[in-house]
């Protein structure tokens, strides 16, 4: 989804001096609760199906998080590749939760219930939800940077089928000079590739996950803009993560719009 190389080449010169590589989920649009309603509906279905044999709802949610987290690194037998953040990981994890609970209480899983769990989980990928998820600050901030003459790029991690729907909502092909979706993780090599042709620019990585959006970028010369969100992957760990932030090269913001308010401070950070 990259624009032609000459588009970047024409932009080269004394201005703009800044290039911003934005994360997508929980940075430009909310993602933290996309899975919440399907998970809660799945809990209700499990309870309705198993009755008093079902564990407390809090235990079901905890089991779902445990299985979902574990499946990120597990091998999908259909592809012989890790599930990662694909649609094959979720909502199939909901089925695994139901099967595990059935195993623990000595009941046989019901095929129709498994099918309903899959259908329930797929509602997490409803495009109409994505439109509502775009932060109110997103377009004003992107417009501000464009008016500054800065380059705006997007680097997101996830299933390309899912991320593609979100990118359409953002009209990403027109708003960003380069868009890339990685299915596994953001590595220093990926950030280096994003920066090709931008050697004269000050590079910034903007994201909600310090460990995944910022640290790999700092290692290859970027500055960081961290806007923390307590997702399921970092629940209860934000203070621990904050203690490790390289404050000489990374600024923490509370909200995306602070990028506009503190633009001069951010762009003045040392490399």
Question: What would your notes on this structure say?
Answer:
This protein is an alpha/beta fold and 271 residues long. The protein has two domains: 5-29 and 134-267, HAD superfamily/HAD-like (Rossmann fold, 3-Layer(aba) Sandwich); 36-125. The chain is 46% helix and 13% strand. The chain is built from 14 helices and eight strands. The longest helix is centred in the N-terminal third of the chain and has 15 residues, at 36-50. The two termini are 29 Å apart. The relative contact order is 0.16. Keywords: Hydrolase, Magnesium, Metal-binding. InterPro entries: HAD-like_hydrolase, HAD-like_sf, HAD_sf, PGP-like_dom2. This is Haloacid dehalogenase. It comes from Candidatus Yanofskybacteria bacterium RIFCSPLOWO2_01_FULL_42_49.
Helix/strand layout:
Layout: H1 5-11, E1 18-22, H2 36-50, H3 57-71, E2 75-76, E3 81-82, H4 92-105, H5 111-122, H6 127-133, H7 138-147, E4 151-157, H8 160-170, H9 172-175, E5 178-182, H10 188-194, E6 202-207, H11 210-218, E7 223-226, H12 238-242, E8 250-252, H13 258-261, H14 263-267
Parallel strand pairs: 1-4, 1-6, 4-5, 6-7, 7-8
Antiparallel strand pairs: 2-3
Keywords: Hydrolase, Magnesium, Metal-binding
Organism: Candidatus Yanofskybacteria bacterium RIFCSPLOWO2_01_FULL_42_49
GO molecular function, one term: metal ion binding
Summarize this entry quickly.
This protein has 271 residues and is an alpha/beta fold.
């Amino acid at each position: 989804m990259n624009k032609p190389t000459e588009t970047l080449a024409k932009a080269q010169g004394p201005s703009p001096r800044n290039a911003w590589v934005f994360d997508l989920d929980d940075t430009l649009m909310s993602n933290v609760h996309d899975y919440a309603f399907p998970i809660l509906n799945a809990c209700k279905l499990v309870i309705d199906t198993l009755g008093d044999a079902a564990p407390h709802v809090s235990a079901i949610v905890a089991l779902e998080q445990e299985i979902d987290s574990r499946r990120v690194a597990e091998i999908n037998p259909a592809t012989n590749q890790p599930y990662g953040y694909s649609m094959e990981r979720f909502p199939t994890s909901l089925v695994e939760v139901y099967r595990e609970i059935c195993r623990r209480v000595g009941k046989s899983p019901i095929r129709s219930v498994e099918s309903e769990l899959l259908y329930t989980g797929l509602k997490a990928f409803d495009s109409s939800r994505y439109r509502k998820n775009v932060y109110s600050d997103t377009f004003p901030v992107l417009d501000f940077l464009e008016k500054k003459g800065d380059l705006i790029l997007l680097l997101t991690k996830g299933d390309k089928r899912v991320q593609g729907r979100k990118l359409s909502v953002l009209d990403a092909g027109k708003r960003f000079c380069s868009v890339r979706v990685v299915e596994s993780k953001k590595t220093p090599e990926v950030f280096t590739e994003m920066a090709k042709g931008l050697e004269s620019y000050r590079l910034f990585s903007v994201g909600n996950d310090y460990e995944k959006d910022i640290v790999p970028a700092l290692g290859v010369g970027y500055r960081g803009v961290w806007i923390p969100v307590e997702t399921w992957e970092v629940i209860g760990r934000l203070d621990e993560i904050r203690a490790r932030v390289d404050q000489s090269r990374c600024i923490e913001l509370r909200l995306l719009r602070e990028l506009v308010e503190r633009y001069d401070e951010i762009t003045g950070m040392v490399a």
